[in-house]
Design goal:
Length: 307
Amino acid sequence: DPFGAAPLQFKYQEVNLMSDFIILTDSSADLSGEMAQAADVQVLPLTFTIGGADYHNYPDNREMDPHQFYELLRNGHTATTSAVNVAQYTELIEPLLQAGQDILILAFSSGLSSTYQASVLAAGELREKYPDRKIYTVDTLCASLGQGLLVYLAAQEQRKGKSIEEVRDWAEETKLNLCHQFTVDDLHFLKRGGRISATTAVVGSMLQIKPVLHVDNEGHLINIGKARGRQASLKALVDKMEKTVTEEGRKTVFISHGDCRKDAVTVADMVRERFGTQDIRINFVGPVIGAHSGPGTLALFYLGTER
């Protein structure tokens, strides 16, 4: 075991054997346990370290509650994340292959993590061992509930009876229409991650400047604007959405937050009022992303004409 602990219990839900393939993602998709179960997808828990201990980021938060995680950050603790390895993927996938399932992996952006690369290596090894099984990997170029929304919509395509190749191709064709708009409340975390300079962080904090960022076509975090004050930054996210959202994108919107649910509800209300959206899902920015974005992060995800 790479963590020197008891063997990981990856399978937190029963596998759906009604379909001949399983959609697999990783926990940076920030799907809750209920969302993952409803979409009938398997989730590989990634790892984070805080307070000198390692934790696995399961969708049901069994090892650490997200509110507790953000309280630790607020109290000065530093969190780090470690890359997933090939063995972890293999351990989760191999029993599914043995059960006669094919596998479609929708992985965390290669622009932010080596998770996708590990999935490619694991898939290559397992294809040799199970030549009769199909294993495909997609670099979603997405993060947090942007990745979660792509996975959720892919699961809907699967439910329509599409083949594994058709769902894979749908994900490849759709991923660059998955828009990520987000803002952070504390510039310190972006500074620590090298996203902004120390000077920008200090001046921005003094002037209450809040950056507006997105994830670009290469899957990287990019600063695309700024707003003066928190409420202005929340409105800026919805203003950005108005410029690119498609008719299909108005139907389902995901919002993730760094332990600031009240702000998430505020954004949800703005989206509902402006676009008539009925299906809005809200969940935490999980510890794997939250370690780098910090408390108070607010992110809005939808289908648009372009990122």
